[in-house]
Amino acid sequence: MAPSAITAPLDFSLSSNSSLKVPKSSFHVNTPSPDKLATKRKIICFSDFDGTIFMQDTGHVLFDSHGCGARRREVLDQQIKSGERSFKEVSEEMWGSLNVPFEDGFETMKTALDIDPDFQTFHKFCINNNIPFNVISAGLKPILRKVLNQFLGEEESAHIDIVANDAQINTPGTEWKPVWLHDCDLGHDKARSITESRQTATVESEDGTIPLIVFIGDGVSDLPAARQADVLFARKGLRLEEYCIENKIAYMPFETFADIQKEVMKIMKEDQDKTGGLGMPVKSNPRAHIWRRISSKNSVPLYLVATPREEKMFLWPEAFTEYQGKDAGIPLTA
Fold first, then answer.
1. Three-state secondary structure of the chain
2. pLDDT tens for each residue of 305-325
3. What is the largest CA-CA distance in the chain?
4. 77 an active-site residue?
5. Catalytic pick from 11, 35, 50, 185?
């Protein structure tokens, strides 16, 4: 997830115009088929979009080709990182710089984007096993849906729920305006979205099973959502994995979605053998329950010392807005 207005600021290990190379598929002849597994536990998957399902950033493609341009985008990204301006303010400038009809902008994305080579196989595995798959993004829902329809086909794309901001785009393409999902500095509180989904799934469960939440991401801005997950997958070599290593956060690395599928299958079988799908999942995250209880602004001081400083601006963006880099020696300030 590269820093842009489509995916909150983020990935300090990549240059602003970085593009990820598409990895080769890691499926082999002996890879288990995606047939339905006889397991009881409800599993819910959430995944970031840019840099995770797709290797490039959809916002970068549009801004560089039809908007403010790469140089101005890099300046704006730096303003977010430095705390000079808020994510929402910068995002609105980036989207507002676009001057292209929606369909013409999409034609540019069609040729510029590469999908993870094993994503479609993994998604079919989710469909076969009744695992809801949700895209959770700081981007614009109409763009994400159009891209998924193009790369997966409308029938398969329809199985994916998209939790993201909406957009108002006029026909000539001279006005692009984000319609923010939440009233917060990032526009979309990913942690809140996952928490609400977990609570809804638990309430709707007829047999009392507690759902297992899987999150898949690549950048530091994914941390609020990752904190709500029972199982975290981080793309190898990118900032989310580095951050997990630095702060001893449990995660599973992946190169393609084939790696994720293999691990999810193992978890499903282990959970069925050990719990029968009842009670807490065999892979559970006790901290997720704590995070839900301390999500209000009033709780910030109680957990300030225990929270790594790079994470503060993403967990409580209203309270912590300044970040000057790990080695700058300037603390986040309330």
1. CCCECCECCCCCCCCCCCCCCCCCCCCCCCCCCCCCCCCCCCEEEEECCECCCECCCHHHHHHHHHCCHHHHHHHHHHHHHHCCCCHHHHHHHHHHCCCCCHHHHHHHHHHHCCECCCHHHHHHHHHHCCCCEEEEEEEEHHHHHHHHHHHHCHHHHCCEEEEEEEEEECCCCCCEEEECCCCCCCCCCHHHHHHHHHHHHHHHCCCCCCCEEEEEECCHHHHHHHCCCCEEEEECCCHHHHHHHHCCCCCEEECCHHHHHHHHHHHHHHHHHHHCCCCCCCCCCHHHHHHHHCCCHHHHHHHCCCCCHHHHHHHCCCCCCCCCCCCCCCCCCC
2. 444 554 544 444 443 433 334
3. 58
4. no
5. 50
pLDDT by residue for the chain (334 residues), tens only, comes to 444 444 444 333 333 333 445 566 555 434 555 468 888 899 999 999 999 999 999 999 999 999 999 999 999 989 988 889 988 899 999 999 999 999 999 999 999 999 999 999 999 999 999 999 999 998 999 999 999 999 999 999 999 999 999 999 999 999 999 999 988 888 888 888 888 887 787 666 666 678 999 999 998 778 888 888 999 999 999 988 988 998 888 999 999 999 999 999 999 999 999 999 888 899 988 766 554 344 434 434 443 444 455 454 444 444 343 333 443 333 333 3
Alpha carbons 265 and 261: distance in angstroms, whole number: 6
Half-sphere exposure of 19 (CA within 13 A, CB side): 13
> Which member of 11, 48, 116, 271 is catalytic?
48
116 catalytically annotated: no
